[in-house]
């Protein structure tokens, strides 16, 4: 026996007759959704503006950071130069003191002792 296929005719979709009350409910719901959409779009616009302000503050902060880093580098270079100059001066004074001590020792050694 051969298989059989049943064909079902689709029924046309019928909406139940809508009453004035149903239409009023749908109209109010539509108005509510439109108000929510408007509020949502306003919030989105505010968030975009806030993001733009934040982005600008970030840009200003990054520029300030770059300037501070440059200034810090210049100050570090100046500090190194000052430390080198101080060290050179310190070593020069130590040499002078050492030479003076040697002179004093040599002169006290050449003086006759009075014992």
From TrEMBL:
Q: What are its GO biological-process terms?
A: cellular oxidant detoxification
What name does the UniProt record give this protein? Response to low sulfur 3
Q: Which InterPro entries match?
A: LSU
Disordered as annotated region, ranges: 1-28
């Amino acid at each position: 026996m051969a298989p059989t296929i049943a064909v079902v005719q689709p029924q046309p979709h019928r909406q139940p007759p809508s009453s004035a009350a149903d239409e009023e409910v749908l109209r109010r719901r539509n108005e509510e959704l439109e108000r929510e959409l408007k509020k949502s779009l306003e919030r989105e616009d505010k968030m975009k503006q806030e993001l733009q302000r934040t982005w600008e503050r970030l840009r200003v902060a990054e520029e300030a950071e770059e300037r501070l880093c440059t200034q810090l580098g210049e100050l570090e270079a100046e500090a190194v130069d000052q430390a080198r100059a101080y060290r050179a001066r310190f070593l020069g004074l130590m040499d002078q003191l050492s030479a003076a001590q040697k002179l004093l020792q040599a002169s006290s050694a050449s003086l006759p002792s009075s014992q």
